[in-house]
């Protein structure tokens, strides 16, 4: 096309060419007609796109179809692939039961009753497995947190535990391992609670099939790893950090914290910042910054608590995978042995408990 257009330009400029100018112009007209679209095409496509966007906005997103509606759907093959994808060995009956929600059994029973068929289905839902798996997962998580965070109070352990076992976090994990295409439930897309219940049932099914040790490692690899990159101090917000710091120093036989203004900048502007340091017995403990003196004191007290609990920003990375091989026995022992509460926390007791 570029060569043809160049030829036409030369014809118009010099009035001559190797071929006839009329032949070249006729060729250009034929190519233009070939690429021509009627004027109604673009407006129609825009209108169809607009209607699709309105429908998706009204339905909360594009319509999703369950994989069981596909022609190549094979549930037995999907179950086999799921266990191999996770690298775990499941009893077939336990795994299938873990994926059957109560709503599915109720829907199938009602459907068979409507057509006059015996509605006694030999299906076991995942209610019992979900309860068992939830308890096991809670113990596994507590054991890991207490073995790794040996010097934090139990309140922070509980906050991290609640974060890991929250509905949103477990739903994310369940979706990423592909439970959405395997769960049998009445509603689709499945609800968040359905994902969580099925995932807990999977943990119990794995414990029944391969033992609690494999289930513990499974929870550590998939659930506990959600702490990676998370600031654990943001998960727990003590109500009175200054009061808690004062109580800890008092229990350790030290003087009350003394707050000193270290430096300040822009005190007469909207971008003021104050740096406050905390001292006890003339020993520096920590410092914090804020847009006011009260906020700076509060931040300095929080930094001091991080120092006591060894949860500073420069703390060591959490151990996962093979790094946990040597402390699995310790994790098992601490599953039902809580850390010291904040009201009784003292560094000497923590050291004695650790060693």
From TrEMBL:
PROSITE patterns in alphabetical order: DS_RBD (PS50137)
GO MF term list: double-stranded RNA binding; ribonuclease III activity
Keyword Transit peptide: yes
First-listed, main subcellular location of the protein, grouped into a coarse class: mitochondrion
Keyword Mitochondrion set for record: yes
Ranges where the DRBM domain occurs: 240-310
Biological-process GO terms, alphabetical: mitochondrial translational elongation; RNA processing
InterPro entries, per database record: dsRBD_dom, Ribosomal_mL44_DSRM_metazoa, RM44_endonuclase, RNase_III_dom, RNase_III_sf
SMART domains found in the cross-reference section: RIBOc
One cellular-component annotation, GO: mitochondrial large ribosomal subunit
Family annotation (SUPFAM superfamilies): dsRNA-binding domain-like (SSF54768), RNase III domain-like (SSF69065)
Any Pfam family the entry gives: DSRM_MRPL44
Subcellular locations according to the entry: Mitochondrion
Keywords of the record: Mitochondrion, Ribonucleoprotein, Ribosomal protein, RNA-binding, Transit peptide
Domain of life: Eukaryota
PANTHER family: LARGE RIBOSOMAL SUBUNIT PROTEIN ML44, RIBONUCLEASE III
Family designation: Belongs to the ribonuclease III family. Mitochondrion-specific ribosomal protein mL44 subfamily.
Entry protein name: Large ribosomal subunit protein mL44
Organism: Daphnia hispanica
């Amino acid at each position: 096309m570029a060569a043809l257009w160049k030829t036409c330009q030369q014809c118009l400029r010099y009035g001559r060419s190797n071929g006839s100018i009329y032949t070249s112009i006729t060729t250009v007209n034929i190519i233009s007609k070939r690429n021509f679209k009627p004027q109604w095409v673009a407006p129609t496509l825009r209108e169809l796109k607009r209607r699709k966007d309105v429908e998706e906005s009204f339905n909360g997103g594009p319509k999703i179809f369950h994989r069981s509606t596909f022609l190549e759907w094979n549930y037995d093959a999907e179950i086999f692939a799921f266990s191999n994808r996770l690298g775990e060995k499941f009893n077939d009956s336990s795994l299938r039961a873990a994926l059957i929600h109560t709503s599915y059994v109720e829907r199938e029973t009602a459907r068979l009753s409507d057509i006059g068929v015996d509605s006694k289905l030999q299906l076991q839902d995942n209610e019992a497995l979900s309860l068992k798996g939830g308890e096991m997962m809670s113990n596994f998580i507590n054991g890991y947190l207490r073995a790794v965070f040996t010097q934090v109070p139990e309140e922070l352990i509980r906050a991290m535990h609640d974060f890991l076992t929250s509905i949103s976090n477990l739903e994310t994990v369940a979706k990423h391992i592909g439970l959405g295409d395997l769960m049998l439930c009445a509603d689709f897309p499945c609800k968040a609670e359905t994902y969580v219940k099925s995932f807990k049932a999977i943990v119990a099914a794995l414990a029944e099939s391969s033992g609690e040790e494999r289930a513990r490692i499974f929870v550590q690899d998939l659930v506990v790893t959600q702490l990676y990159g998370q600031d654990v101090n943001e998960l727990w917000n003590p109500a009175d950090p200054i009061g808690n710091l004062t109580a800890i120093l008092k229990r350790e036989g030290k003087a009350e914290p003394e707050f000193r203004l270290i430096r300040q900048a822009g005190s007469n502007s909207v971008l003021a910042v104050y740096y406050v340091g905390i001292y006890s017995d003339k020993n520096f403990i920590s410092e914090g910054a804020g847009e006011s003196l009260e906020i700076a004191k509060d931040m300095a007290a929080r930094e001091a608590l991080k120092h006591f609990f060894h949860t500073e920003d420069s703390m060591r990375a959490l151990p996962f995978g093979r790094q946990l091989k040597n402390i699995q026995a310790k994790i098992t022992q601490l599953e039902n042995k809580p850390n010291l509460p904040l009201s009784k926390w003292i560094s000497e007791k923590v050291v004695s408990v650790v060693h």
